[in-house]
Amino acid sequence: MASFPEEIMLGSLLSGRDFLTLADFSKEEIHYLLDLAQELKRKQLLDNSPQPLKGKTLGMLFEKASTRTRISFEAGMYQLGGNAIFLRTEDLQLARGEAISDTARVLSSYLDGIMIRANSHEDVKVFAKQASIPVINGLTDMYHPCQVLADLLTIKEIKGTFIDQKLVFIGDGNNMAHSLMLGAAQMGMSNTIVTPKGYEPNEVIVKESVSIAHQNQGNVEVTNCPRTAVQDADILYTDVWTSMGQEAEQVERAAAFSAYQVDSALVLQAKKDAIFMHCLPAHRGEEVTASVIDGLQSVVFQQAENRLHAQKALLTAIIGK
Ligand code: CP
Ligand code: NVA
């Protein structure tokens, strides 16, 4: 599929690699994946999908619920000519105390790659260290890189460029905020994370993002003031106030975040052609109003569809030869 020597080199450099965060790949490698995703999307529309993963099997290990991640990875593997096996942690010996490292070594001898959705990012790191096959982070408490790969594809399709694009994330300084900071920094975008006091993103990830952004002429800011931050925004992004695993904090969080809802008045402060993004699942009336998420500026279903295309590019590059 790759036609120029530089693309062939980037493609082969990705073979066998893990994808745990957006900092695992260079900006050139991310651009390569986005180009490949667009090519695969075009080919699928023409009913001409290549099948570079014939005979390959992806394991998909889930410790938490999923609609998009599970189905898009599974469908993507089939479309690429391979197979996917859905595994729930509670059905494996992991739930009865088998070591993650032993599980990683055993599964490496059956599978060609594994996608993991886990509570703890540290567990995924342990798994990746022991596994001899590529490991993909399908969401942890700290990151959601596959979602952001699809989001970057969506921004590229709609805006045509990342240069001078201002992405403002309003909400919890959570896994989505972390991955968006890293992804925007890699692409040299201007990125502001707006949270209530006490819910700011992880400081280590902020520092890492600032350093990556500076290398790429981008910038990262963290603030508590939504109205100022959204001025001149090209992209407004939000996510749930209570992530999976935080259900006990729901009432407290609803109170803390009530002034951080993305509503029509807030969207009016952004640029006229600003788009609204959300990784989904969404809670209308909480982090976003129905008028915004179901309005003309919303691109949330394009984002959701792009999970499939972005992940097909990722799978082709890291599992394919
Ligand atoms: N956005 C996302 O990861 O959705 P799921 O939780 O449904 O996989
Ligand atoms: N922050 C959310 C994202 C869901 C895709 C969560 O972790 O539940």
Please outline the helices and strands.
Blueprint: H1 5-14, H2 27-45, E1 57-62, H3 68-79, E2 83-88, H4 100-108, E3 113-117, H5 121-130, E4 135-137, H6 145-159, E5 166-170, H7 175-186, E6 190-194, H8 203-215, E7 219-223, H9 226-229, E8 235-238, H10 250-256, H11 264-269, E9 275-278, H12 290-293, H13 300-319
Parallel strand pairs: 1-2, 1-3, 3-4, 5-6, 5-8, 6-7, 8-9
The structure holds phosphoric acid mono(formamide)ester and norvaline (NVA).
Please explain how this structure is put together.
This protein has 321 residues and is an alpha/beta fold. The chain is globular, with a radius of gyration of 19 Å. The model has no long low-confidence stretch (mean pLDDT 96). Helices cover 44% and strands 13% of the residues. It has helices at residues 5-14, 27-45, 68-79, 100-108, 121-130, 145-159, 175-186, 203-215, 226-229, 250-256, 264-269, 290-293, 300-319, and strands at residues 57-62, 83-88, 113-117, 135-137, 166-170, 190-194, 219-223, 235-238, 275-278. Helix 2 (27-45) crosses helix 13, helix 4 (100-108) packs across helix 5 and helix 6 (145-159) crosses helix 13 (300-319). The strands form two sheets. It has a five-stranded parallel beta sheet. The chain has a four-stranded parallel beta sheet with strand order 2-1-3-4, sandwiched between helices. Norvaline (NVA) is lined by residues 139, 144, 174-176, 239-240, 243-244, 279.
